[in-house]
Amino acid sequence: MGVPKRLTEMQKRFAELIVWGGPNGPVSQTEAAKLAGYSEKRAAQEGSELLNPKLSPLVIQYVDKLKQEKFKKFEVTYESHLAELSRIKEEALKKGSFSSAVNAETNRGKAAGFLLGPCFILYLCVPVPLISTSCFKTLLRNISFQPFL
Length: 149
Known about the structure:
The protein has helices spanning 9-20, 29-36, 43-50, 57-74, 78-94, 98-112, 133-141. The chain is mainly alpha-helical. The chain is extended, with a radius of gyration of 25 Å.
């Protein structure tokens, strides 16, 4: 039979539901198949087959394309984050919501690295309840501190 050369409307709808979700949020592959118009009886099987790269490579390619579009749409960069916080602050000031404006400006300062203060991130490879206090103090004394900015 071979692989089709283009996607059907139901396959496109299925892929869109997998990536973007349904009217009530994320959906399983079975739910996506049902919402896309596949039969109730075969929805689980269809969903599985549609996400199998050997059986439905075009669907997988379309899902990947949609995921890339979704990532670009919601991507957060340093610049876009600061710009969005600035926009929120300006909107809050226009509405006289000074508390929200202060919070937005504070978060903008944190994102820029101005309001970090003495902040440390500590990663331990042992469950804390399983080590003694003296052992923990020894670990803390031997930590080398490195700036993360």
